Fold this sequence. Notes:
Layout: H1 2-20, H2 25-28, H3 31-48, H4 51-63, H5 72-92, H6 98-102, H7 114-117, H8 120-135, H9 140-189, H10 196-250, H11 255-264, H12 274-284
Helix pairs in contact: 3-9, 4-9, 5-10, 5-11, 5-12, 8-10, 9-10, 10-11
Amino acid sequence: MLLIIGVVIVFGSVVGGYVMDHGQLAALWQPTELLIIGGASVGAFVTSNPPAVVNAALKGVSSLMGGPQYKRQDYVDLLSLLFDLLIKVRKEGLMSLEEHVDNPGESPLFTVYPRLMKEHHLIDFMTDCLRLMVGGGMNPMELEQLLDTELETHHSDGMAPALALQKMADALPGFGIVAAVLGIVTTMSSIGSGDVATIGSHVAAALVGTFLGILLAYGLVGPLSAALEYRANDDSKPFEVTKIALVASLRGYNPQVAIEFARKSLAVKVRPSFPDLEAHLKEQR
Length: 285
């Protein structure tokens, strides 16, 4: 919803100010300029990015309409699941997790949280980490380094659509200049045969090309890129929470302390309070 509000404010302010200054809206409608700028920028976007990034960018922009992927309750469920796993380890040992890790879809520990089970990448990350812990032979520092490498890869993949859109935003003013130059070429070619009104309309069209390139870059595509960047950072947080809790457990901290390490890493807006989380964990028992 905020995405739509922001776009409306940007374009409403620009067009509204133009009209208040006695500008004619019809002069801004230049389909050929839109075709040049839009077609060239989209073509460059498709050319410079692999299909996976193009598809991810399209899906990412559409997902911005739905708000954040992980909400406060999702983090409560994640911390609760981690707590359940660590309690089982403390009571029965790491080997007791083997059957749960191999088939989380049928595990009574995992299936209690159906919302989390839909996040396949997160569950795979968690079970892979637990599998390494069950297998043994890794100290906490080695495991943390390995998980940090995986998190960097995951974060890099998540940031790719945002970076691609930012490059598109950087190119838009240049394509606006291309459209303007072509408009000037048209203007110069009509000087000998065209009247003053015709020449003036061609000049106006050329200036609109520059205007559209800059407006689309800084008023639409650039902000979308920034929004995708924030989304990528938010979406990587559950993986970091999982890593912190499991590494803390491997270092010898009891489940309550390990979960507290993970809880403290969350932003205030999604972090459950200590009493709320404790009450929830007691209810789950």
